[in-house]
User: Which sequence fits this backbone?
């Protein structure tokens, strides 16, 4: 459920979006979406070329360009509508697929769009529930208290006296998703075979299928209501967790009526303080609630951002909203996680890789040598720090930095969990500066290890393993020989490579690269010229002019590269 805070701008924001309608032009959507992706690919290609930096190339300048493009992507996703807003939120967890600048900007994507009219709300409710709003509700606020890309929320009262909120799906959403996802499948196929974005064994069609499943689940309010009921049952023993009750008589696939449970936004620290509530207790309970979902129930809220969690003003209980996106831990996954954790404690990169394959984070047929080297680097740089001093957000960022460009394929469950961990850690530190999520997680990890019988070591075994490794690396007398031995082992395994340079070979490779660049420019000239011609014939004059200008720039680059090749040939 969107945040239950009245927003006066919802009724006055008349900003026009082409997607904000019931009938969509398939041809127009195809043009808009493909124009965005082709512009994105062209910008990414140019940003990767050092010659495009007129005042000289630096990594800082390239990062600044990526940041600027990431902001453009975020804004364009909002313009393209609900499908892309949700994709942006999903991709904001996939730093294994995209540069960190893209991930950070997409995480700022605000799901705030203009509300649709009351007449459309009344039509949807009457069509789905078979009765008019006055027949169903004693009162119904025409202006929504919150609006998002998939739907909006209205305050109402039942004839039995209960205060409720009614979540109504945006009209035409099913048709828009159908059109957009059909177009995106073609783009996924293109990315699958792309020389840059398709490298590293990335399964874009698999990612597409996963995104489709998540998006369609979010449009089914019956499923969301069932998720809310399951979540409530899981926390029936905890009086400090509250979940809105579902009124099934007034609900359908596009309409969901829920108990009205207003609260203080969990990130409103001043409001919590003013209510006289203990911020440290709330921080601890928020971590405990999520760890129970993940490690005990195996059914967790996949989007616990501050807008979806509130605090009951009188009791300080946690209130959870919006159960459209939920995660499930498959049977046996917790044991695989613990096996991988023990391999990490033992600094055994081979066992870690095997654990990741078992968890589905690495393809079984992938080249595991570069993965193992990356993991070994991660192990060497993290196990020298106490567990309590580590930050989930920092570990996640470092993991994604290593994963980007490697043949990792993080499942949606993994990325949802890591995003949730980072979010809860951030909120916890806001509530309590001394809060540490890793410390809060230890009792749950020990509980899992103790409950797995003889196959999984207990907490003492786990701590002993970490202590043994710390003792090994802490010996200063053996430090230097051990490093020499490690270096020899890495050489034998191929973790360290010796580069031998030959001037003749270098010249040949430079010329080969220049020829390849020249060919690329020629292809670009032909492609953009043909595209401009087709757009002009179809009376897209402005677009034809833009693409024609890009073709002219590519022609200049081709001419410059040709002259450079001629000079190299004369000098050789």
Assistant:
């Amino acid at each position: 459920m969107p945040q239950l805070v009245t927003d006066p701008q919802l009724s006055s924001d008349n900003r026009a979006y082409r997607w904000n309608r019931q009938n969509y032009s398939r041809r127009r959507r195809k043009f808009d979406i493909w124009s965005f992706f082709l512009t994105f690919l062209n910008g990414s290609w140019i940003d990767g070329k050092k010659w495009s930096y007129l005042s000289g190339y630096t990594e800082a300048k390239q990062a600044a360009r990526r940041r600027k493009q990431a902001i453009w992507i975020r804004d364009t996703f909002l313009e393209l509508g609900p499908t892309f807003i949700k994709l942006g939120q999903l991709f904001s967890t996939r730093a294994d697929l995209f540069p960190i600048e893209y991930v950070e900007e997409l995480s700022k994507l605000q799901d705030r769009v203009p509300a649709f009219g009351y007449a459309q709300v009344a039509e949807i409710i009457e069509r789905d529930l078979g009765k008019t709003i006055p027949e169903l509700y004693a009162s119904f606020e025409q202006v929504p208290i919150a609006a998002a890309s998939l739907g909006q929320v209205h305050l109402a009262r039942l004839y039995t006296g209960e205060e409720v909120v009614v979540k109504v799906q945006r009209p035409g959403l099913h048709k828009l998703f159908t059109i957009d996802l059909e177009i995106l499948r073609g783009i996924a196929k293109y990315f699958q075979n792309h020389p840059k974005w398709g490298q590293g064994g990335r399964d874009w069609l698999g990612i597409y299928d996963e995104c489709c499943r998540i998006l369609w689940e979010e449009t089914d309010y019956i499923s969301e209501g069932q998720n809310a009921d399951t979540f409530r049952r899981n926390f029936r023993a905890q009086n400090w967790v509250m979940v809105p009750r579902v009124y099934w008589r007034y609900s359908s696939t596009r309409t969901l009526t829920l108990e009205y449970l207003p609260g203080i936004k969990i990130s409103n620290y001043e409001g919590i303080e003013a209510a006289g509530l203990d911020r440290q207790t709330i921080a601890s309970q928020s971590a405990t609630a999520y760890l129970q979902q993940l490690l005990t129930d195996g059914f967790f809220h996949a989007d616990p951002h501050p807008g979806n969690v509130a605090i009951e003003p009188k009791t300080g209980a946690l209130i959870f909203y919006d159960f459209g996106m939920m995660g499930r831990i498959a049977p046996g996954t917790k044991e695989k996680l613990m096996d991988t954790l023990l391999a990490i404690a033992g600094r055994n990169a081979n066992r870690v890789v095997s654990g990741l394959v078992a968890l589905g984070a690495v393809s079984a047929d992938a080249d595991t040598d570069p993965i193992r080297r990356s993991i070994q680097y991660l192990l060497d740089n993290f196990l020298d720090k106490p567990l309590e001093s580590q930050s989930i957000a920092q570990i996640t960022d470092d993991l994604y930095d290593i994963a980007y460009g490697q043949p990792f394929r993080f499942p949606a469950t993994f990325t949802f969990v890591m995003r949730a961990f980072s979010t809860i850690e951030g909120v916890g530190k806001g509530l309590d500066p001394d809060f540490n999520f890793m410390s809060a997680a230890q009792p749950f990890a020990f509980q899992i290890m103790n409950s797995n019988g003889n196959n999984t070591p207990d907490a003492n075994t786990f701590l002993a393993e970490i202590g043994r490794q710390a003792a090994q690396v802490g010996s200063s007398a053996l430090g230097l020989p051990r490093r020499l031995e490690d270096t020899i082992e890495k050489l034998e395994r191929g973790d360290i490579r010796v580069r031998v340079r030959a001037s003749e070979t270098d010249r040949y490779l430079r010329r080969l690269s220049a020829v390849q660049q020249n060919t690329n420019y020629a292809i670009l000239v032909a492609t953009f010229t043909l595209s401009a011609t087709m757009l002009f014939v179809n009376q897209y004059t402005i677009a034809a002019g833009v693409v024609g200008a890009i073709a002219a720039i590519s022609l200049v680059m081709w001419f410059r590269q040709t002259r450079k090749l001629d000079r190299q040939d004369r000098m050789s």
Observations:
- The chain has three domains: 1-262, 333-493, 503-571.
- The chain has a mean pLDDT of 77.
- The CA atoms of residues 518 and 552 lie 15 Å apart.
- The first strand starts at residue 139 and ends at 140.
